[in-house]
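Need 3-oxoacyl-ACP reductase's 3D structure for a figure. Predict it.
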Amino acid sequence: MLNNKIILMTDATHFLGTPGTKALLAEGATVYAQDASFEAEAARQAFEAALPGAVALAEQEPAEVVSAVVEAAGRIDVLINNDAYPAVRAPIDEADVDEFRKTLDALMVRGFAYAHAVAPGMKQAGRGKIIFVSSAAPKHGLPNYSMYVAARGGTNALAVSLSRELGRFGIQVNALAPNFVESPTYFPDDLLANPDAMKKITGQIPLGRLGKPEEAGDYLVFLASDKSDFITGQVLYFAGGWA
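Structure prediction for 3-oxoacyl-ACP reductase:
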């Protein structure tokens, strides 16, 4: 399904990075992966050993990452902004404004910078896909998590706006908006092992369970494939009916 596709995955060891990369590779894609940990050669080697076929990049700044992929592969067909950052619990009267700025930078500004960097090449090619992995949380809001939810909501709006701007160049832009997906980034092992906590969490989900990482990976495969060529400007919820 993804043969000959050149895909860039950001924050590759977090959120949907690993299951997404695994699913994309299984469908024949060439995946270049960025992660903060990849500044260390050992981390790059470990990632490539765990996911044969993936290419871990040492570069960190969005423009440098994009340039490295284009130099190696000639183009980028799909950008997956898999941005991850802790959802810090903070009532508004206790929230740290500097922490809010860090959240916005991690979840909005970085994705904007990556889109800025890939857009010229995609415009020239007359096609491309930009996928923001965000969150379903802005659909209903989460009390005491306004910093995280606001950043994710901004990303969802960015995807919709960019789709209007880039559609005439053959570029699709969408947001995959998960919630309640098994991921160490947001559901650490000690939480998954707590039956009382899990009962409370899954009680909010109409399907009564957490989503599987592999299911989210399959969704990314669809959005990265030619089968999604007529889908753009969508915030696509993946939350078991919660959103």
